[in-house]
């Protein structure tokens, strides 16, 4: 069984189906209503493949293939802090927990330890592609790119830019020029290790407006234009942050069309169709129009927005009323979990709070199918890979996870799946009478990495649950 999104509100269940992946990791055929005999007798011949050369992976009883998750916003160096945020909110959280930890990544041994772990952890949760923020330190940021390449995780790697005195002396860029030079050094490094940018891509990463001076924002906007590289940053996460941006960047200074947060990024050339905006909790209607007009994308980070008491982003409206492309971000460690499945579950729950909150409506609620769309196809579009990953289609690359569910026997005990075809499952109990959409809903609300049996990126097996 293959399950994937075909539209925001529609999961497709492909039973009796075979997907053919070539040596480069590209899907070359999707055969529906197919059995092993038909595969052997017709499809292999058509592809010109010898049966003996083909490696066969089956989803056994209780298992299904699902596209790999895309984490559109995660801070790799903050992983040691997951769950550690106390009662802080964004601006004091940065100073108390985040800047001291990120500054310590000038220690390359520590960077290697943490980055190795964060890649293993996210792969084990089915994250086949992540848009990472690293730190201001170039050698360790380049190391993160090396480690992703070696581990086989698809990644966008952002060397963090921050030169304003909002940040402490011990953790900021010395000047806009130094910040640009450091950014270029990481871009060059990635072009050296993955010249075609087939797995790893650099991403221009102004931390957020308040941590950058106007000259730096402008120069990053110019660099994005010159290089056509993607951009990632934060926007309208927290009300104090929004007020701070209004104070720091009046239109008289920036030449922006109005005094909104989105207009600041727009004025410096950072609001583009290649821009990933994290959070977008407190956008005004007018800002949402501007984001939509520029075709910028949004990374919805529900775990983080709840943990740091930032707010609840009305993401279904942004999707449906404005047509803005949205994906999910774990936002480790504003978010307490590195799991995109947890982000999907929290997206569903937070959307219910939006629905019953002030001004909320029925249509603010996200369904299981919708949060899984955000976790896969939506995320792919957000990071500029909408034609490459996120679904099982000919021409796309095989970034996928094999998900297993547990079987409960007549005695009420956990058991092997019936018959020799039974596969290992995870902690989600299936009694056998549930429909497949019900099983998938159980996975979304109860699943974790114990259900992630195998993970592939570009056809390569990158994780197997032991
Ligand atoms: N805004 C600026 N930096 C950060 C960060 O590291 N995490 C979150 N959640 N918001 C930010
Ligand atoms: Fe963040």
Automatic annotation (TrEMBL):
Domain Amidohydrolase-related: 66-462
Any one Pfam family match given in the protein's UniProt record, by short name: Amidohydro_1
Keywords attached to this entry: Hydrolase, Metal-binding, Zinc
Highest rank taxon of the organism: Eukaryota
Gene Ontology CC terms: cytosol
Annotated transmembrane regions: none
EC number: 3.5.4.3
InterPro entries: Amidohydro-rel, Guanine_deaminase, Metal-dep_hydrolase_composite, Metal_Hydrolase, Metallo-dep_hydrolases
Cofactor(s), names only, from the UniProt record: Zn(2+)
Molecular function via GO: guanine deaminase activity; zinc ion binding
Pathway involvement of the protein, from the record: Purine metabolism; guanine degradation; xanthine from guanine: step 1/1
The reaction(s) this protein catalyses: guanine + H2O + H(+) = xanthine + NH4(+)
Entry's Gene Ontology BP terms: guanine catabolic process
Family annotation (PANTHER family): GUANINE DEAMINASE
Family note: Belongs to the metallo-dependent hydrolases superfamily. ATZ/TRZ family.
Role noted for this protein: Catalyzes the hydrolytic deamination of guanine, producing xanthine and ammonia.
Descriptive protein name: Probable guanine deaminase
Organism: Corynascus novoguineensis
């Amino acid at each position: 069984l293959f399950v994937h999104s075909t539209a925001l509100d529609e999961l497709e269940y492909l039973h009796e189906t075979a997907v053919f992946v070539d040596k480069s990791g590209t899907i070359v055929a999707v055969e529906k209503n197919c059995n092993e005999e038909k595969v052997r007798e017709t499809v292999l011949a058509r592809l010109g493949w010898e049966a003996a050369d083909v490696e066969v992976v089956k989803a056994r009883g209780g298992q299904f293939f699902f596209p790999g998750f895309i984490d559109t916003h995660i801070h790799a160096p903050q992983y040691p802090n997951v769950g550690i945020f106390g009662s802080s909110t964004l601006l004091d959280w940065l100073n108390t927990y985040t800047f001291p930890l990120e500054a310590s990544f000038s220690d390359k041994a520590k960077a290697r330890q943490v980055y190795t772990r964060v890649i293993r952890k996210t792969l084990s949760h089915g994250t086949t592609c992540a848009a990472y923020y690293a730190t201001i330190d170039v050698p360790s940021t380049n190391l993160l790119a090396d480690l992703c390449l070696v581990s086989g995780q698809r990644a966008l790697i952002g060397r963090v830019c921050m030169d304003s005195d909002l940040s402490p002396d011990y953790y900021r860029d010395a000047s806009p020029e130094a910040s640009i030079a450091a950014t270029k050094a990481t871009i060059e490094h990635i072009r050296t290790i993955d010249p075609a940018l087939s797995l790893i891509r650099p991403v221009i990463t102004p931390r957020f407006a308040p941590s950058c001076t106007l000259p730096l924002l402008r120069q990053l906007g110019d660099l994005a234009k010159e290089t056509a590289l993607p951009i990632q940053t934060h926007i309208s996460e927290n009300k104090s942050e929004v007020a701070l941006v209004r104070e720091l960047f009046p239109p008289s200074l920036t030449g922006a069309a109005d005094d909104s947060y989105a207009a600041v990024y727009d004025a410096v050339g950072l609001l583009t169709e290649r821009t990933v905006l994290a959070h977008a909790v407190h956008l005004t209607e007018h800002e949402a129009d501007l984001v939509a007009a520029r075709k910028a994308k949004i990374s919805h980070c529900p775990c983080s927005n709840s943990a740091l008491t930032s707010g609840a982003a009305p993401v279904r409206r942004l999707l449906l009323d404005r047509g803005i492309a949205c994906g999910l971000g774990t936002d480790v460690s504003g978010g307490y979990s590195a799991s995109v499945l947890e982000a999907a579950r929290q997206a569903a729950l937070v959307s219910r709070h939006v629905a019953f909150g002030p001004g909320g409506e029925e249509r603010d609620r996200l369904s299981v199918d919708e949060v899984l769309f955000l976790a896969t196809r939506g995320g792919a579009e957000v990071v500029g890979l909408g034609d490459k990953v996120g679904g099982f289609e000919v021409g796309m690359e095989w970034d996928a996870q094999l998900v297993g569910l547990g079987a409960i026997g007549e005695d009420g005990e956990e058991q092997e799946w019936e018959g020799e075809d039974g596969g290992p499952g995870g902690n989600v109990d299936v009694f056998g009478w549930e429909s497949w959409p019900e099983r998938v809903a159980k996975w979304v609300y109860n699943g974790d990495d114990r259900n992630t049996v195998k993970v592939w990126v570009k056809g390569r097996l990158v994780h197997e649950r032991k």
